[in-house]
C-alpha cells in the first residue's frame, strides 16, 4: 500500500515535499530512479520499511531491517547549480543537523565524503545515483538496529542508549532539513555547504587512510578543496586531492 504525506518544506516556499511509503521494496534508489524517469517532481521522497536489495557505495550491501530509515529523494539539476556530486555533502550536513536533536553536536562527526559517525562509529550512509537530468539521493540511518560483521564499527541510536524515532517521523523531519540546505546550496553556492561540512568534520591533522582507485594513501586531513575534494597531506609534505575512495580514521 502506498501512503503519501505532503508537508511544507520551509517557510516562504510554495513547493511541497511528497513522502511516499511502501512496506517492502528491493531498493528505494531503484524505485526513485524509475519515478524520476516518469517525471516525478523534485522534493519527492520514497521510504520503505524494509529493503531486500539495499546497497551502499561501491555496490556494497546495505542491511535494511524494519525500524531503520531507508529513503530516497531526487533533485532536478538546474543550470547554475553547483556540481551534482556535492549533493552528498548537502545530505550529510542536513542529516548531521537533524541527528543533533538526539545526540548533540559533540558526539557526531562527518567523515569524507558523507558518512556520519556517532561516538566514532558509522550511523548512516548516503548514496548518489544519476537518473537523466535528476540525481537520486539515497539515505539510510541506523535508528533501531546496527549491522554486524562489517569492515568498520557501526552503531545505531538504540545501541547508543537512546529511544529511536519512528522512521516515518524521522523521514518527514529530514525532508524539511534537506530542502532547506538544498535551497542554500542553490542560492548561496557550494561554499556555505563546505564551510558547515568542515565545521562538523574531524579536526585538521586527523590521520586518515584512503582506499582510492589508484591505491591506498595515508596522510593527515587538511580540509577540503573548493570543489569538495579531500585534501590529504602525506609524509613527504605534498597535498593529494582525493575525489573518490573510502576513508578510514587511523
How does this structure look, described?
There is one protein chain. This protein has about 250 residues and is an alpha+beta fold. It has four helices and 14 strands. About 25% of the residues lie in helices and about 35% in strands. The strands form three sheets. Strands 1-2-3-4-9-8 form a six-stranded mixed β-sheet, sandwiched between helices. A five-stranded antiparallel β-sheet has the order 13-12-11-10-14, with no helix packed on it. The chain has a three-stranded antiparallel β-sheet with strand order 5-6-7. Helix 2 packs across helix 3, helix 2 crosses helix 4 and helix 3 crosses helix 4. The longest helix is centred in the C-terminal third of the chain and has 21 residues. The termini are far apart. The N terminus is likely disordered.
Question: How much beta, percentage-wise?
Answer: 25-35%
Termini Cα gap: 46 Å
Q: What oligomerization state is this entry in?
A: single chain
Largest sheet: 6 strands, mixed
Low-confidence parts: 1-16
Q: State the order of secondary-structure elements, H for helix, E for strand.
A: EEHEEHEEEEEHHEEEEE
The largest beta-sheet arranges its strands as: 1-2-3-4-9-8
State the helicity in percent bands: 10-25%
Shape: globular
Structural class call reads alpha+beta
> C-alpha Rg, in Å?
17 Å
Mean pLDDT: 88
Amino acid at each position: 500500500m502506498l501512503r503519501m504525506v505532503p508537508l511544507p518544506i520551509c517557510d516562504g516556499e510554495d513547493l511541497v515535499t511528497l513522502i511516499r511509503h511502501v512496506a517492502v521494496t528491493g531498493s528505494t534508489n531503484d524505485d526513485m530512479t524509475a519515478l524520476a524517469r516518469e517525471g516525478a517532481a523534485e522534493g519527492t521522497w520514497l521510504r520503505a520499511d524494509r529493503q531486500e536489495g539495499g546497497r551502499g557505495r561501491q555496490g556494497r550491501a546495505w542491511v535494511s531491517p524494519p525500524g531503520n530509515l531507508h529513503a530516497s529523494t531526487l533533485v532536478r539539476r538546474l543550470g547554475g547549480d553547483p556540481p551534482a556530486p556535492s549533493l552528498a555533502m548537502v545530505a550529510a550536513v542536513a542529516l548531521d543537523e537533524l541527528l543533533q536533536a538526539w545526540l548533540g553536536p559533540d558526539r557526531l562527526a562527518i567523515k569524507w565524503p558523507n558518512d556520519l559517525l556517532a561516538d566514532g562509529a558509522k550511523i548512516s550512509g548516503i548514496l548518489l545515483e544519476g537518473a537523466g537530468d535528476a540525481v537520486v539521493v539515497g539515505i539510510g540511518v541506523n535508528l533501531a538496529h546496527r549491522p554486524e560483521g562489517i569492515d568498520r564499527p557501526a552503531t545505531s541510536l538504540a545501541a547508543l542508549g537512546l529511544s529511536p524515532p519512528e522512521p516515518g517521523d524521522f523521514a518527514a523531519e529530514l525532508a524539511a532539513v534537506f530542502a532547506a540546505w538544498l535551497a542554500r546550496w542553490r542560492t548561496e553556492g557550494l561554499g556555505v555547504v563546505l564551510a558547515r561540512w568542515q565545521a562538523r568534520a574531524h579536526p585538521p591533522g586527523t590521520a586518515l587512510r584512503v582506499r582510492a582507485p589508484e591505491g591506498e594513501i595515508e596522510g593527515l586531513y587538511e580540509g577540503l578543496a573548493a570543489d569538495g575534494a579531500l585534501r590529504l597531506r602525506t609524509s613527504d609534505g605534498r597535498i593529494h586531492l582525493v575525489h573518490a575512495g573510502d576513508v578510514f580514521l587511523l
